[in-house]
Amino acid sequence: MKSAILGIYKEEEIMVSALKKMKELKINVLEVYSPYPVHEVFQILNRKTRFSYATFLFVLLGLVMSYTFAYWTHVIDYPISYGGKPLHSFPSFIIIGFVSMISMGVLLSFIAFLVRTKLFPGKKPIIVDNNITDDSFVVLIEKEPDMSENEVIRINSLLTENGAVEVIEKKMK
After folding, report:
1. Nearest 5°: phi and psi at 7?
2. Which residues have CB under 8 Å from 87's CB, separation 6+?
3. pLDDT digit string, tens, across residues 113-154
């Protein structure tokens, strides 16, 4: 079982300035929990996502699949000439391609999000502090097994000096 140090903040601005101070002092912040997204946290912790690239690939997959299916049904499997038009007329595939592109992008992005975050029906939520669902911001710092008592005291005092309302040491699952 791992231990962690939790710094609980009541205001977003104070928490963001404390995170900047921790980054300057090279304290490893494991996670930040908040009741709503705080975009500065991603920049301060250097967190990057490849989710937009995955969505772009899913959209391309939807476009290729819909175009392949439309071509196969209109030209190869069941070719019917309507009023002398050619069998493969690209403008008739545009609407189908656009709609299926959006549908595949949304559906596969949603599934990728659920898989990546390990969300599934019936999963018990990890709530490190009961106030994060209401009005508090929690900064979680992992307490290493080889961390000295002086270092723990230094981190606790740093959290308190930078506006933490409460500092807790807690065992994590």
Report:
1. -110, 120
2. 74, 75, 79, 81
3. 999 988 888 888 777 777 777 888 999 988 888 888 888 888
- Identify which of 154, 142, 173, 169 has the alpha carbon closest to the alpha carbon of residue 8: 169
The residue out of 116, 138, 159 marking a domain boundary is 116
Residue 14 and residue 56 in one domain: no
User: Using 50, 70 and 90 to split pLDDT, how confident is the model at 95?
Assistant: confident
Domain boundary (116, 146, 161) is at 116
Structure tokens at 3: 């231990």
Residue 93's contacts (CB-CB under 8 Å, 6 or more residues apart) are 66, 67, 70, 71
Q: Domain range for residue 154?
A: 2-48+125-172
Number of domains in the chain: 2
Strands 2-9 and 166-172, by their bridges, are antiparallel
Name, in order, each residue with C-beta under 8 angstroms of 48's C-beta and a sequence gap of 6 or more. Answer: 42
Q: How many CB atoms lie within 10 A of CB 120?
A: 8
Residue 167's CATH number:
3.30.70.120
